[in-house]
Amino acid sequence: MSGPPPPPPPPAPNSSPSRPAPPPPPPLASTSSPVRLAAPSPCRPHSNPSPVQLVAPPPPPPPTLSTISSLAPTPPPLLGATSTPSPPPPPPHCHSSNQLSSSKENPSAPPPPLPSSFSKDAKNHGGGYNKGPSCNVVPPPAPPGGNAKLPGMRGHGPAPPSGTMSRSLQSGQAASRRSNLKPLHWVKVTRAMQGSLWEEAQKTDEASKAPVFDMSELENLFSAVLPSSDGKRSDKSGTRASGSKPEKIHLIDLRRANNCGIMLTKVKMPLPDLMSAILTLDDTVLDADQVENLIKFTPTKEEAELLKSYKGDKQVLGECEQFFMELMKLPRVDSKLRVFLFKIQFRSQVSDLKRSLNIVNSSAEEIRGSVKLKRIMQTILSLGNALNQGTARGSAVGFRLDSLLKLSDTRARNNKMTLMHYLSKVLSEKLPELLDFPKDLASLELAAKIQLKSLAEEMQAINKGLEKVEQELTTSENDGPVSEIFRKTLKDFLSGAEAEVRALTSLYSNVGRNADALALYFGEDPARCPFEQVVTTLQNFVRLFARSHDENCKQLDLEKKKAQKEAEAEKTKKEPEKTQKEAEAKKTKEPENEKAKNNNSIKELDISLQSPVQTASAK
């Protein structure tokens, strides 16, 4: 940061006003031991195209010769130094706390960059400044306009240019405070793409036009550890910084890293055991879902390059980064995981595909072999010709398969019956043995759920998976010992899988032939009426016929119940007439019975009267 040059320093008391300031004194020498001159600071280059004009703190006036002679025997004492013998020469840049505090109070003139030794020492002491005897006091920089040195100052080179100073201040402050600031989790671009704004920025040197950031402000705003009011870390944060584990370093996108951590918690095994399970293709340890998740979290090309460029301690990396590091130890880990997934799913894939192929074959054979279905189709043909007699649709030798469904669309004149109901009624009355024809089509329902296109895709996936296994087995021969167990396990699996796939391929070819033959059986073109359409049409016909037959049966039951009720009502109606006739007949018979009874009584009386007369005459 350059400003207007400060006023020239006042002349020394012992010098005349007209005489200019004396040249800088030579390096001081001690009579007891020679003084070694400090090497020029690496942070201050010797080139001096534009001297730096530092505003604060102001430099002291240059000393006179008498003062220099009085100060020649020994350098100024160190802060906190005792009467012990002189220590060896200190590092070239070790600043005192007073100097640092003054630089913080005046942000317009940031302090020189701290050396790496100071940063490490400060980090070891909880982030504070080291005030022990190992840090010598360094006086403020020399005033502009010359190479004058102050008493006790070890030799330094000329002041650096302003642009160099700004960059060095930035880099030095970033190095000393980098661990205290929260990181920006971005994806770094290491090579500017042609035509991008980054390439243009490199050509026009936009980096030099960027503003200089106040690191103190950044630390206050984005500090990873909250400072206390007195500027020192709180007890809790200081204890954590000194005694706890170091903060993890994250190189991968934070969201992806968190998802990867969740996935690893579901696996629940150490990384070495996980790598061993992958190399041995152990499906008793990892299932298909876990391997699929591992495939999702294999490092991308950019992530792999980012991790390869990391040269720090791997133990301080995050869980996701360490997991990626382990995966990167396996050659073509993505290919190995996909082969592993194919091995896990192979048995179930082959079993499911074989079951579907057998259903298709069984259904085609059942349909073509059903005699009852054939007779029903002939009955429908006769019914249609009877209805279409004398028209262009009559005298047909057959009909399209989808015409079966139109039987439910043709209604009777009373709008209560369809041709499907009528067909069921005729079969019930004349051919009842055909009513149970759906029993001949046991596999029809299952076959209607199968798509031959899906079977073809499954067959193709199995063949491609087997090809990937063969390719990986061939390629892994160059991996060395790391893939030795992997190759052996994969070779054993491949030998058995090839035999199963050959048998499956033969079965699949047979299915294609049966599907085409089924369409031809009904007089259809296999290209226009594929297997799926045939079985779906037959399935709907069976359902409509069964429903019509049930409705006919219900209608018959209703009619029987109705007839029974009418018979009972008729019987009830006839009973009163019979009772009345019986009553009338009873009334007619009662007088006759009374008359006959009276006649009998008269006869009995006559007989009784005649009996004494006859007895007397006999005597």
TrEMBL record:
- Alphabetically ordered keywords of this record: Coiled coil
Q: Which domain of life is it from?
A: Eukaryota
Q: Pfam families under this entry? A: FH2
Which stretches are tagged as biased composition: Basic and acidic residues? 561-597
Residue runs in coiled coils:
452-479
Q: Which Gene3D superfamilies does this one have?
A: Formin, FH2 domain
InterPro entries, A to Z: FH2_Formin, FH2_Formin_sf, Formin_homology_domain
- Disordered as annotated region, ranges: 1-182, 224-246, 561-619
Chain ranges of the FH2 domain: 171-571
Q: Bias category Pro residues: which stretches? A: 1-28
Q: Where is the composition biased (Polar residues)?
A: 163-178, 608-619
Task: State the family named in the UniProt similarity comment for this chain.
Answer: Belongs to the formin-like family. Class-II subfamily.
Q: What is this protein called?
A: Formin-like protein
